[in-house]
Write a structure and sequence with these properties.
The chain has helices at residues 14-25, 45-53, 65-78, 95-109, 124-135, 153-162, 240-253, 278-294, 297-315, 322-332, 365-368, 380-402; strands at 4-9, 29-37, 59-63, 113-115, 140-142, 178-181, 186-189, 219-226, 229-233, 236-237, 258-264, 270-276, 340-347, 350-357. The protein has 407 residues and is an alpha/beta fold. It folds into 3 domains: 4-64 and 95-173, HUPs (Rossmann fold, 3-Layer(aba) Sandwich), CATH 3.40.50.620; 179-295 and 334-357, Argininosuccinate synthetase, chain A, domain 2, CATH 3.90.1260; 373-402, no CATH class. A 5-stranded parallel β-sheet has the order 3-2-1-4-5, with helices on both faces. The protein has a 5-stranded antiparallel β-sheet with strand order 10-9-8-13-14, covered by helices on one side. Helix 3 (65-78) packs across helix 7 (240-253) and helix 7 packs across helix 8. It is elongated and about 85 Å long. The N and C termini lie far apart (83 Å).
Length: 407
């Protein structure tokens, strides 16, 4: 009897290695593994070796760092997207790219299903699957965490030992947190962090030093934008991935980009997450500085109104939905004029804007000067104010007539 073929999002870690064997043994599937290099900073060779040891013939390992930053991070940052006031969506924005490649590999290999290691409590299951269904409505999804009974670390290790799956030495004990990394950020959650009152251990962080340990001398950086996207750091033009890599180095050196938050997951529960986004934090600060002198007032305010809706769509997995694409078109229509350079001072956890300039600037020193000028007639302000006050004055007169004037 023929076996169905399934494409597994495979990291080479304990969980996805167990899923690989479970798909082979319990689901009677031939497995194709897909491992994406999106800047997690780990050697991916071991993932290939593990897959080969487990009898996998079709192994996909792809460097998607440029795709990730150019096609996903760049559009998201053009929206200045932040979820619930602080989260720069580092994990969220990686999922549609992985979901897209899972579907494409399934088509290429004749697989009828895709599989992932996201749990039934989290957001990632939604993000992977909404992306897959949007691109291939007939695809089948196998989500082991929603089916099996391996619902504890002890059971996972027992299963691994039974099936001779190599277990990393640091997985035999209780890990203090789970971690997800890519070129935009690292997220930490679970275990010791489940108590929202508990401060994270300093040795947990991978991308940044603490602000206290950062250099005592500030460092200045200039970031150049064209059409809303960054193109250079300190005059050096860089590819999208190289740009973010360099900003991560600068931000991490100065303790920038740490966030500790309790967020509202799409499945309904609150969860505590700790994030490191050093480069992204500098990037967003610089972007807004350049936009401040190049965007029309109402276009800028409209973007700020749209942003929370846009951020929520990414957080909840709707990257490929028509409403996200519609919002993206509106956002991108504002970006032609967003050209210029922001100068920032990096110091002790802070990215401080100290200068901005643009060849397409809307900032007019002639109009804003406190000195004498001949371009702005200050008498015009009186009529402007009276016209805008008309409805307020009529409202007050109406309430007086009815005897209901507010105190």
């Amino acid at each position: 009897m023929s076996r169905d073929k399934v494409v597994l999002a495979y990291s080479g870690g304990l969980d996805t290695s167990i899923i690989l064997r479970w798909l082979q043994e319990e689901k009677n599937c031939d497995v194709v593994t897909f491992t994406a290099d999106i800047g997690q900073g780990e050697e991916l060779g071991p993932a290939r070796k593990k897959a080969e040891l487990m009898g996998i013939e079709h192994i996909y390992i792809e460097d998607l760092r440029e795709d990730f930053v150019r096609d996903y991070c760049f559009p998201m940052f053009r929206a200045n997207a932040i979820y619930e006031g602080v989260y720069l969506l580092g994990t969220s924005i990686a999922r549609p790219l992985i979901g897209k490649r899972l579907v494409e590999i399934a088509r290429d290999t004749g697989a009828v299903a895709i599989s992932h290691g996201a749990t039934g409590k989290g957001n990632d299951q939604v993000r992977f699957e909404l992306s897959a269904y949007a691109l291939e409505p007939s695809i089948k999804v196998i989500s082991p965490w929603r089916e099996w009974d391996l619902n504890s670390r002890a059971k996972l290790i027992e299963y691994a030992e039974k099936h001779q799956i190599p277990i990393p030495t640091d997985k035999r004990g209780e890990a203090p947190y789970s971690m997800d990394a890519n070129l935009l950020h690292i997220s930490y959650e679970g275990k010791a962090l489940e108590d929202p009152w508990t401060e994270p251990d300093e040795d947990m962080f991978r991308l940044s030093v603490s602000p206290e340990a950062a250099p005592d001398t500030p460092e200045y950086v200039e970031i150049e934008f064209e059409g809303g996207d960054p193109v250079a750091i300190n005059g050096e033009r860089l590819s999208p991935a190289a740009f973010l890599t360099k900003l991560n180095e600068l931000g991490g050196k100065h303790g920038i980009g740490r966030v500790d938050m309790v967020e509202n997951r799409y499945v309904g529960m609150k969860a505590r997450g700790v994030y490191e986004t050093p480069g992204g934090t500098i990037w967003l600060t610089a972007r807004r500085a350049v936009e401040s002198i190049t965007l029309d007032r109402e276009a800028s305010h409209l973007k700020d109104e749209l942003m929370p809706r846009y951020a929520k769509l990414i957080y909840t997995g709707y990257w490929f939905a028509p409403e996200r694409k519609a919002l993206q078109a509106a956002i991108d229509a504002t970006q032609d004029n967003v050209n210029g350079t922001a100068r920032l001072k990096l110091y002790k956890g802070n990215a401080i804007v100290v200068g901005r300039t643009s060849p397409t600037s809307l900032y007019s020193t002639e109009h804003v000067t406190f000195e004498e000028d001949d371009v702005f007639d200050q008498h015009d302000a009186e009529g402007f104010i009276k016209l805008n006050a008309l409805r307020l004055r009529l409202g007050t007169l109406g309430r007086r007539t009815q005897g209901t004037e507010d105190n």
